Amino acid sequence: MKKINNFINGEFVSSARTFDKRSPLNDAIIAQVYEAGQADVHAAVQAARAALDGPWGKLVVADRVDLLYGVADEINRRFDEFLEAECADTGKPMSLARHIDIPRGAANFKIFADVIKNTPTEFFNMTTPDGLGALNYATRSPVGVVGIVCPWNLPLLLMTWKAGPALACGNTIVVKPSEETPQTATLLGEVMNSVGIPKGVYNVVHGFGPGSAGEFLTTHQGVNAITFTGETRTGAAIMKAAADGARPVSLEMGGKNPAIIFADCDFDAAIEGTMRSVFVNCGQVCLGTERVYVERPIFDKFVAALKAGAESLKIGVPDDPATGIGPLISQEHKTKVLSYYQKAKDEGATIVTGGGVPEMAGDLAHGAWVQPTIWLGLSDDATVCREEIFGPCCHISPFDSEEEVIRRANDTIYGLAASIWTSNLQRGHRMAAKIDAGLVWVNSWFLRDLRTPFGGAKQSGIGREGGVHSLEFYTELKNICIKL
Ligand code: NAD
C-alpha cells in the first residue's frame, strides 16, 4: 500500500496516525496518509521559521527567482508523475488535468517570480520647511511563515496559486492540502529538494480541519499569515482562528455563480461556455455556473441544446480520452450532491436530464458517480437555486429584462463570478458594472490572465490575489523616510 508522508524541513516524515485515501472511481483504498499531529505541525512551523531566518531569508530576489523557475521546470519535467497523482486522487479526466491543473501548477511559480522581479519600488520626494526635502521609499519584506490551507477540487493549481507568490515574496510556507488530495503537494516536496530550495522553506502537513492539522496550523502562533481556499463556513472558522494574534487572512470561498444568456448572443459559443462552466471537473469548480438565466425568446432552444450537450458527455475514467466527466471527489460529497438532487425533486423541479446515479460496470459501481443534471421550473428561493452544490448541475430559468436579471443574479450571499453572453458589448459593459462579483466574464468563462485580480465579493472571499495584488498579502510594506 502506498504511504504518503508529511514533508517537514526537507524530509519525508511519518507520524503516529494514518488515514485512508480512497479512489473516487471505485472507493478502493489507494494510499495511507500520515496525519500530522500537533507536534508535527509545530515542527513544520519551526522549520519554516528557521529557513526564513537562515538561508532563504538571505537570498537576493534574483536567486529566488531562479530557484522558482527551476521548480516550474522540474514540475514540467515530471509532468506525467504529477498528472497521474492528481488524477488518482481526484478521478478527473487526464485530458483536463493535462491542459489545466499541471501546466498551471508549474506556471504559478514562474508568473509570480516574474511579478516580484518586475515590481518597482515606490518613492516620493517631499518638501520640508528647511527647503532640503526628504526622500521616502517603500520596501517589501516577507510577512514571515505563511499557512496555506487548500481544497481538493484543483489541488496542485490552487495550492501553487498561493505557494508561488508566497515563496516569490520571500516567505516560507506550511501547506495543509485537503485530506482528499494529499499526493501532488507531497510530490512537490521532492521537486523542492531536487532543485535546491533550502530545507524548511516548503513544508506539507496532512490531515483534516477541526482537531487535526488544519486547526493546529491555523491556531499556531508561529504562523504570521493564513491563506485559504475552500467553503465559506470553513473560511469563517479560519478567520476566527486568525483573530488570535491579529493575523492577516486571505480567503477564497464558495460561490453560486450566475450565467446570463441574452437572445442576441453567439448561441453556439454560449452553449459551449455554459457546458464547460456547469460540467467541467464534474461541476467542482468554484467559478462554475449553477444558476443559468436565459432571455425568454431563446429559452426553449437553449434548454434543448444544453440538455443535448449534457447527455453527450461520456462519464468515465481518467485515462479514457473520450471521458468528458469523471466522478465526484468522494462518497461523502456524492451523498451531499444527491441530497440536493432529491431536494430539487421535493421542491417541484422539472428534471430536464439526469437527477440520479449513472450505471457503472464492475467495481466502478462503488465510485462517486452522479449524472449531469439540469432543472427547470423552480423559484429563485428554492434550495438548489440558493445553496452552493458543487456538483455537475444547474437550474435554468427565463428572464425578460436587464433590470430583472441583475436583481435576480445579485440576490445571493455569494459574489464570486458571473458570465454574460451577448453580442451587444455596450450591454456587456453595463451589466458587468452592476453585477456583485469579483470576476465577470463577457462572452467567455474561465479565461484567466494570472496578472489580474482574483477573489470574491460578499461571502465568496476576503482580499484579492493575482499579479501585483498577491504582493499586498504576501509582503509587508515599510516606508523609509530619509531627511536630506
Ligand atoms: P473545505 O472548506 O471543506 O476544506 C478546505 C480545506 O480546509 C481542507 O484542507 C480542510 O481540511 C480544511 N479545513 C476544514 N475545516 C477547517 C478548520 N476548522 N480549520 C482549518 N482548516 C480546515 O472545502 P473543500 O470541500 O475542500 O472545497 C470545496 C469548496 O471550496 C467549495 O465551497 C468551493 O466553492 C470552494 N473553492 C473556492 C475557490 C475560490 O477561489 N473562491 C476555489 C476552489 C474551491
How would you characterize this protein structure?
The protein has 484 residues and is of the alpha/beta class. The protein is 40% helix and 23% strand. The protein folds into 2 domains: 2-253 and 460-483, Aldehyde Dehydrogenase, Chain A, domain 1, CATH 3.40.605; 257-449, 3-Layer(aba) Sandwich (Aldehyde Dehydrogenase, Chain A, domain 2). It is built from 17 helices and 23 strands. The protein has a 7-stranded mixed beta sheet with strand order 15-16-17-14-13-19-20, with helices on both faces. Strands 10-9-8-11-12-22 form a 6-stranded mixed beta sheet, with helices on both faces. β11 (225-229), α10 (232-243) and β12 (249-252) form a beta-alpha-beta unit. It is globular. It binds nicotinamide-adenine-dinucleotide.
Gyration radius, in Å: 23 Å
CATH topology grouping of the largest domain: Aldehyde Dehydrogenase, Chain A, domain 1
Low-confidence stretches: none
Bound ligands: nicotinamide-adenine-dinucleotide
